[in-house]
Amino acid sequence: MAQIFGIDHKYFAVPAVALSVGISAYSVYRLYSQSARKCATRTPSNVYESEKLLGEYLVFHYGSPEQLIPYPFGPKDALDFPKRSSELCLKHYKAEDGIPSRALDVGCAVGRSSFELAREIQDVIGIDYSQSFVDAANRLKIDGQVPYSLVQEGDIVTPAVATVSKDINRNLVSFEQGDACNLRSSLGEFGIVLAANLICRLHHPKDFLSRLPKLLSKKGSILVITAPYTWLEEFTDKSLWLGGYIDQNGKAVTGFEGLQRELGSDFELVEDVNIPFFIRETARKNQWTVAHATVWRRK
Fold it and tell me: Which residues form the Methyltransferase type domain (predicted)?
């Protein structure tokens, strides 16, 4: 047995097929082909199907503070980002006549926010582009827990278990694979839509935003978008960026301004706040990022 962070674990090696991939992408939408731009033709990228990345998202969503930051220092206020995102939704949601008790978590990854929304919402749908993430979320729904590998250093990993809180009714949540730019037409209407760290990883972000007025058709319904605004041509053709560019008049256009332009006719901005989050890659290499969270109410 070996002692790691004060907890006894047995070392074992990551399978050779697992990819060594950083977690610089904060959602599971990836641009594949620079020539093929249609939403319906996308297929999941291998980078999002790796065992290593799955483990990084499981610990990001369900890891304990000791697993994520095993030191007496560190940005511990940045933990539990998926839970804090769902709490921001519920803070503004009001169960009024005509507003559905339904929530849509787009880019749900391995499902923590979806489960947390079910504390107050009667029907929650989580959609993600990665089939492996959806499979893990569905296993969490069925079993309440999923084992995974926590990378310590190189091929050295320790076993861990992601667990859904027992006071959450998992039967209220369902998960499916899908593309945010081409959501199925039969989804229906919602009282809440959450898109956490998604918008700057979509190949056609305006296609997603244009669908929101129908998904949130009832006045008072809530939309929450969080984003670090890390615009990259790897994910989105530069001509389709919502922000992060200099326009033809020499003006710097931000992602926030792009959201206001696209959403302003149908939604009222009711709050914007900076929310830090912490992603663990290894025992000693991590990412600290600040997402801009904007809360919108349907007019």
Answer: 104-223
Q: What is the CATH number of the domain that holds 277?
A: 3.40.50.150
Q: pTM for the whole thing?
A: 0.85
Question: Is 36 contained in some domain?
Answer: no
Cβ-contact 60, 232 below 8 angstroms: no
* Count: domains in the chain: 1
Q: Who contacts 140 (Cβ-Cβ below 8 Å, separation ≥6)?
A: 110, 111, 115, 146, 162, 164, 170
Stated as kind and residue range, the H or E segment containing 198 is none
Helical pair 51-62 and 131-143, crossing angle rounded to 10 deg: 50
The C-alpha atoms of residue 215 and residue 40 are separated, in whole angstroms, by 19
Instruction: Quick: pLDDT tens for 211-250.
Output: 999 999 999 999 999 999 999 999 999 999 999 999 999 9
**Most distant CA atoms of the chain, gap in Å:** 64
Q: Is residue 176 part of a domain?
A: yes
